Amino acid sequence: MKRPEISASYKVTSAPPNSSKKRKSTSDVWNHFIKETDQNGMVWAKCQHCGKRFSGLSKDGTTHLKNHLNTSKCKRSQKETGGLENPTVTNGNFVFDEERSGLKMVELSYRMKKQKDEVTRLQLSNRNLVQMINAREQNYGVIESANKVLRAQHAELTDRLRSLTSLLQMIEEMSGFSVDIPDSMMNHGSSTVRSSRSWLICSCLDQ
């Protein structure tokens, strides 16, 4: 007895790719580099922090660019420029640290306000000092003018005292002598006029 032939066909199908695991088209590292093409058609990746250029060809990948961002020279440049996005490195990916950037901005704002207050305080202190100096200069001018007047008065009083002293000496020298008026002079005046130095001096003293 002949056994019946049994045929079977199999169709091999492949499972559809998982759409949730699509590869990222652009790396975050390009947030720190600018693509440039020179006159020879060569593509370069220019660092926005330090300006250094690297190969920007897709076949070269981005590992060398990430390594550059981790170098101390580039990190110093990032600090000097403030960092374009203030990135932090996590598993080779650059992620924007918004919290730390916000804290730095608050700290910078506080320092600037503190410096402004200090400048304002110094300006006020200098203004008060200038006013005090001006007031003292004015007082010095008044005192100097008064001193000039006092010196002039002192000189005048000194001259008067010197004159009075000379006059007193002359009076003392003349007090013991008398002079008669000649007849020729009496004829031109009153016959009752009598004069002597001692009499004149006594009359002056009585007045």
Automatic annotation (TrEMBL):
UniProt-annotated stretches for the region Disordered: 1-27, 62-88
- MF annotations from Gene Ontology: sequence-specific double-stranded DNA binding; zinc ion binding
Write out the biased-composition intervals (Polar residues): 10-19
Q: Which InterPro entries match?
A: Cuticle_assoc_protein, Znf_BED, Znf_C2H2_sf
Q: Which residues form a coiled coil?
A: 147-174
Q: Which Pfam families match?
A: zf-BED (PF02892)
Arranged from A to Z, the UniProt key words for this protein are: Coiled coil, Metal-binding, Zinc, Zinc-finger
Instruction: Provide the BED-type domain boundaries.
Output: 24-81
User: Coiled coil: present as a keyword of the record?
Assistant: yes
Domain of life per record: Eukaryota
UniProt record, GO biological process = regulation of transcription by RNA polymerase II
Recorded GO cellular component terms are:
nucleus
The protein's name is BED-type domain-containing protein
Source organism per UniProt: Quercus rubra
